Amino acid sequence: MSANAAVTRVKPAVPRRAESQESTETRYTISALAQEFALTTRAIRFYEDEGLITPARHGRVRMYGERERVRIKLILRGKRLGLSLSEIRELFDLYAATRNERAQLAKFLQMLADRRAMLLQQREDIDAVLAEISTLERDCRRRLRPEPQAPKKVGV
After folding, report:
1. If 68 and its partner were Cys, which of 6, 31, 53, 144 is the partner (CB 3.0–4.6 Å)?
2. How far apart are CA 150 and CA 143, in angstroms?
3. How far apart are CA 149 and CA 54, in angstroms?
4. Is the pLDDT of residue 38 over 90?
């Protein structure tokens, strides 16, 4: 086999333009988004099933716009912060209902405060467990020290 035969061509993760002349909106394929965000296509379809993104369909082909791309970025940010998909959906729905980000930002601030409080409590719990582990380790090491030998009695 020649060296050239082993090379596999990979399509770059570039957006595809919508084919319609009336729309100049950038469209993305599911593969391009999966590659851009290091996700599987199944994960993106799952977000669609959960109602978090709504791609346009051209026959059986899903085409994602900038709105879906931004939403995927926000979903991943929310997950990194520890938000559940239902909390992320709540934020999306809040914006969709009001078309005003003030209510969405206020809710997000509350979610962040709740998350911070939970993480601080977890930190305290972890610190307490680590302190207990240190105490138990010291006790175990102390008990494993060789016992001093009692003097042998000679000739009774």
Report:
1. 53
2. 17
3. 78
4. yes
